[in-house]
Structure formats: C-alpha cells, structure tokens
Design goal:
The protein is an alpha+beta fold and about 400 residues long. The chain is about 50% helix and about 15% strand. Helix 12 crosses helix 17.
Length: about 400
Amino acid sequence: MFTSQTSSFQDSIDVEERDDFDSDDIGGYNQKTQLNCYYAIYLYQGTRSETSEESVAWNKRRADSTTSQDDFSLSLVDSSLPPEAEPELRCYISRRLSKGALLEGMGNIATVDISVPEQNVGCYCCLLEQEHSPDQPDAEGNGYVICFMGGSEKGLNLYPCPIVVQELDKYVQGLQSCLQTPELTNLETEIRPYLSKWYEESVLHIHRVVQLVQSSISFLLHAALSHTHVEVKSDERTKKDIARFIKAASLQGLSQQEATTSLCKAMSEEPPSDLVIDCSTTPPTLSNTVSNRFCDDWIQAFLNAAESCNPFLLRQILENFKLKAIQDMNSLKRFIRQAEMSHYALFRCCQFLQGCGNGDVLLQNAKAEHSDLPEACRIITVLEEFLMEPSQAHT
C-alpha cells in the first residue's frame, strides 16, 4: 500500500508533460506566446419590449449582429481576433446561448475551432448581465459576453480547473463597472486595455514568480503548505504575484475552518519565522528559508516548464503539486484513524511519513485538525518523535 502511494509521485509531476506536451510542443512554445492570446466582447440583448428606446450605439451594432430563433442578438463590441475568425466565434457563442450553456457571472472553458494559426484554441466565455434599476424592467436580459482565447489546443483548455475558472471570473468581474452604458465611450481608454491584459494578469503571474526565484521556489511551496507568512520587499506587482502564487499553492480553504484557525493561532504563538524575500538584489535574497524533500522534488518540474515559456503547463504543475499534497494529507488522516486501533498501522504511518518527504507539513496540519481528539493527538505526538529521531541522529 505504501509503495503504490509513493511510487505515483513522479507521475503526479510529469503526467501533463508526458501525455499532453511532447518535446516539439514545448520547444515551439517560446516567447511569442503572448501573440497566441485573444479576446472578444459582444453585446448581448435578450427579449426586449418593442416600445423601449434603444441607443444610437445599439442600433449601429445591431446591423452587425447574429440574431437567433431564441429571440436574442449578439453583436461585436471589440475583438483582437483575425477578421475571418470573429464571425466563427460569434456563431459558436450563439449556439451556447441557445442551449442555455452560459450562466451569468460563471464562465467555462471549452475548445473552439476557428480560423486562427492554432486552429483549436481553449476559449473561456462568461456572460455579464447589465445592472438595471427597478423602473427599467425591459433592460432585463441585456449584457455582455466576454471571451478569452489562449495558447494552442494544449493551452487554455488544459487549464480549466475550478480555481482557474474562478480567477478568470474574478478578472471579468473587474470590468463590470465599465460596462454600464450602451455607448461604451470608454472602450479605448478602459475596456480594451483591460481585456488586452487578461493573459498577463491572470496567467503569467506564476511564470513571473518562478523566473524570479528560480530553484528557491521550493521555499515558497513549503511556506504555502505550512501557512507561513511571506514578507516581500519589492514593488507592488511582485508582491501581488507572490501572494497569488502562495494562495494558489496552499491548502487553505480545503480543510475545516476550525483547523485553519487553530493552525494559525498555534503559529502566531511561536517565534517569528516569516519567509522574507528581498528583491533589491539579483537574484532575490531569501531569509528564514525552510523546505523539505517533497517540495525540493518539484523544483525541476517548475524550472523546466518556466524554461519552455509555457505558463499553462506551469499552472497545471502547481495544481498537481497541491493535489499530491492533498492526497498525502488524506492518507495520513486514514493512517491516524487506523493507528488508534493497531500498532501495525502506526508503523505503516511512520513509514509513510518518512517516505513522502512532507512529514513536517502533514503533521502540522493534522495536529491542528485533530486538536480536539485526544487519542489522535497522542498518535501525532508519537509520529512527531519518530520524525525527530533521524534528524537528531545526524546532528
């Protein structure tokens, strides 16, 4: 049982690299990745009263719209797509709307086949309904459909994990305040620049962090898993990038709220040990660094993906890292329950912690989550002593 769990570690690192990205793909994914990303925004109008007054801007756009039998129209506002590809995307979105596949404020990712160099691209679509006052009931059903297309067929649609979709949803929501008037006089000053930066802001931050810290990425991974506070001495953008990386790699929100609170309280009672990243030097100087074998084993996977300039693969590797940590955490919980009734299970639990390379983090989280279970706490104390013995033997 122990062997089968730990032998899958390398698979969790390179599963996407092996199955979805061959050497030709990675070699061809160079610094021009920014050119492979597009956006489009459409004005959507549902059923509307015949007596309602429409703006001049709406009348102009309606001439270049796709109207379906479901009594809605979809008209182009702006797009970075090639002219021949945009109508194909509009037809695709119309089909999705006809089937009720786009829900307000909740985006999704699918593969689309349109006339771009990549042919098949991952496409994120989200419907934003316009806010309207109670005295304007005829405005109901009006809004905008926003689309982001990125990478090749092995790009954005490799990236549809729920957390990533939520991040793109949040980015789209940031545009809500700019879309309150049908004239959209702020198209060139606010809307277009915002849409043009979706890739840089929502995808590239992980790539920037790995490029910044290089092999020191293991310290950030360990800090994320162990809920260690990270202090960054740099510009605001770098601070934001690192904070988002830590949040994406952490298990916060996946465990019980009481456990997270207990863990944070326990850590606050310990001497300050914040991870400090000083970006005033090149490369950055990191202080109070802590890592373990589990985090160290992921360094090369991150560096390889960063070197290939593939931010989509980087995100998938980060998700695989977190998934493996979650699997090991669940395995430890199961072993602890079994160890309460069996000494052999306690022995297997010790073997597991020694073999996974992440014993310090797993026990830290388990101790917080089982703080109100005396028998489990006793087992965890025994396991902590077991892990300390090898380190003391080497001192």
